[in-house]
Amino acid sequence: MREQRGSFVGADSAQRACSKGWDYFKLERFGEAEAHFRQSLSVAENAEALYGLGVTLNVTGRVADAIECLSRVIQLNPYFSLAYGVLGDIYAAQGKGVAAIEYFAQGVAADPNNSEYKMRLVHIVRTMSFSKINQNLKGVLLACLETPGIDFADFGRTWLSIVESDDATHEIYKLSRHKEYPSFKAVFERIADSEAWIDPFFLTGLGLFVVPDPAFERWATHVRRALLETLDHNPMDTESREYLACALSRYCFLTDYIFEETPEELEAVKALKKQIEKQRPEEVSLAELVVLGCYVPLYRLKKARKIAESLLGGDHVSQIPKSQILDALEMEKIRKKIPSLTPILDETSQKVQMQYEEFPYPSWKALCPDIRDKAVEGHLIGAGAKILVAGTGTGRESLELATVFPDAQVLAVDLSKASLSYALLKKAEYGIENITFKHGDLLELGQLEEQFDYIASSGVLHHLKEPMRGWRVLTDRLKPGGLMRIALYSSKARKAINEARERITEAGIGNDALSIREFRRDIRKHLKLSAIKELENFLYYYTLPECRDLLFHVQEHQYDIPLIKVSLEELGLEFVKFYIGPGTLEQYVRRYPDDPGAVNLDYWDRWEIARPDTFAGMYRFWCRKP
Q1: Mean per-residue pLDDT for 15-24?
Q2: Do 169 and 144 touch, CB atoms closer than 8 A?
Q3: Where does residue 389 rank: exposed (0-12), middle (13-18), buried (19+ CB within 10 A)?
Q4: Residue 434 neighbours by CB under 8 Å, 6+ apart
């Protein structure tokens, strides 16, 4: 009995030492934290103290020792998910993607509800392409696909590589080799009973993200047409057809129906729509409804709400058309109540407004509520900051800022009520309260009396007739010492885009949906293969709103770094830094060791001349008002 009592005392002593270790760790007194963790381990080896010692060693730069400690944690307790996460972070920081993936995947397996590990896993995996997929990893990635709130931006190529290489789905994607529809359809009907069509990874991923690949777009276009043409002689079982068509309708909706259509398809779609609208809502066939949803937005149907309300229960895949209808109708309702902050008086602003009313931009599925750079933005945490987002679009950046700085008050303004209604729908979905969306023009914000601690205007100024006029308005609204986040197009990074825009102008091609589809269909008549290949690498090329923004915008200016430098000097703003990947920053500092802060714009100009795709996404940077 005495021995048992002594073991209890030892365990209690180990726990107290471990608890003190965490207290010191939170205070960033790492030496004392390490001492207490080691004291705990001297009493009894335990996973909690080993984990504490491991993370302490890691933050103090003793990475090899940290790995050893954390690996021992997992040996002691394979379900200690936090250890997997730290090991994943360590290997990711070392550029060892495969090892990082392994540990994050094990972390998800150990704690299936841990969304953070799922996000980190997806963030690493989306940079990769698979020629063969481990089935355990595929299962973990499926769990990620099924988890709401995970950001799958840029995941399309990775997902496609898994679909293409996996034995479970390889058979159906081989159809992409058939460039001509007749041969495609013949094979499609022969393999229509394949279980590959309802593979969970394939179905769940289809429509969660854009797949920037011309062969995939051709494949999806052919599948859509085959589903339409075989409605009367279904080669698939009913359930498989419904699941496939539901998922494909989600993808078509996501791309805003950018796929090419034949005259025969248009006639068949017109007849199908008429047929559905004649029926009572509860009698509408799900198979017919979702095939129609592959071609046109279902919320435009007569009795759309009643049709949606009749889609009760059933598999979550079959609820896709219901959400498309009800979300669109809710946005129409929201739109009518959006308050106006300023009038839209400028002629160019009115043209831009019309574009985004027709094509709200961009669509998005998940927030990434992470501070972009703690050294730059960290002082706003807990400061009760006033934040202005000038040109919020569909609200993603604004809602991320409101989440990252929950004590801030965010005012988000945009020209387009269609975009704002999307933003407000997402605001309600995420339950974010510290943000107000209003309709107005950036150029008229000089009417406001209040000034702001932080102003964000990403991808907006270059769409003004006079960008400096708008930038000056924002500068006047910024408090002394205030921070500004700006994003502008780079002329060097948009060579193929500029070439395409020139051809579009010369040919007198319009910017309506039909003209955009026809331009993409006939692109080889307008551009050289090298320019086409460059455009096909842009994610924006594969959805109608983004393609219009990319190639058909009614107003666009482009910048280079010397122009940014002159503009900042004229406005009296100080350049802070570019928001750019750590790999690029490390290379830059090695090239220019006398500029460790990476703030010399003359150096950056030289850098971009040598590497013109550096700012392909835009110049994204912070500046400050002295």
Answers
A1: 92
A2: no
A3: buried
A4: 402, 406, 407, 408, 409, 410
Question: Measured between alpha carbons, how far is residue 577 from residues 18, 401, 558, 580, 604 in Å?
Answer: 40, 19, 19, 9, 11
Q: What is the phi-psi region of residue 459: left when phi exceeds 0, alpha when psi lies from -120 to 50, beta otherwise?
A: left
pLDDT in tens, 519-557: 999 999 999 999 999 999 999 999 999 999 999 999 999
Supply the mean pLDDT for the chain. Answer: 93
pTM for this model (two decimals): 0.90
Rounded to a whole number of angstroms, the CA Rg of the chain reads 27
What are the C-alpha distances in Å from 266 to residues 126, 261, 279?
36, 7, 21
pLDDT at 30: 94
Q: Is the predicted pLDDT of residue 9 greater than 50, yes or no?
A: no
Residue 362: partners with Cβ closer than 8 Å, 6 or more residues away: 393, 394, 396, 545, 546, 549
As a whole number of angstroms, the distance between CA 225 and CA 81 comes to 46
| Interatomic CA distance for residues 536 and 215, integer angstroms | 11
DSSP letter (8 states) at residue 231: S
CA distance linking residue 247 with residue 253, whole number of Å:
10
Alpha-carbon distance 42 to 246, whole Å? 59
From the centroid of its chain, how far is CA 32?
41
Kind of pairing between the strands at 452-458 and 478-488: parallel
Report the alpha-carbon distance of residue 479 to residue 384 in Å, rounded: 14
Other beta carbons less than 10 A from residue 471's beta carbon: 25
Distance CA(350)–CA(353), nearest Å, equals 5
Distance CA 160, CA 365 (A): 19
Region class of 384: left (phi > 0), else alpha (psi between -120 and 50), else beta:
left
CA atoms of 303 and 273, how far apart (whole Å): 12
Judge whether 482 and 452 are in contact, CB under 8 Å: yes
In the predicted structure, residue 359 carries a pLDDT above the cut 90: no
95-99: long-range contacts, CB 8 A cutoff, minimum separation 24: 97/124, 97/127, 97/128
CA dist 284 and 261 (Å) reads: 24
CA atoms within a 13 Å half-sphere pointing along the CA-CB vector of 598: 18
CB atoms inside a 10 Å sphere around CB 426:
19
Tens digits of residue pLDDT in 562-575:
999 999 999 999 99
Structure tokens at 406: 């929950």
Assess contact for 605 and 598: CB atoms under 8 A: no
Is the previous residue joined to 362 through a cis bond, with omega within 30 degrees of 0? yes
Max CA distance (Å), the chain: 94
DSSP for 418-439, please give it: HHHHHHHHHHHHHT--SEEEEE
CA distance 344 to 355: 14
Residue 10 has pLDDT above 60, yes or no: no
Count of alpha carbons within 13 angstroms of residue 517, beta-carbon side: 13
For the beta carbon of residue 42, count every other beta carbon within 10 angstroms. 12
Give φ, ψ of 131 to 5 degrees: -95, -15
- Report whether 451 contacts 478 (CB < 8 A): yes
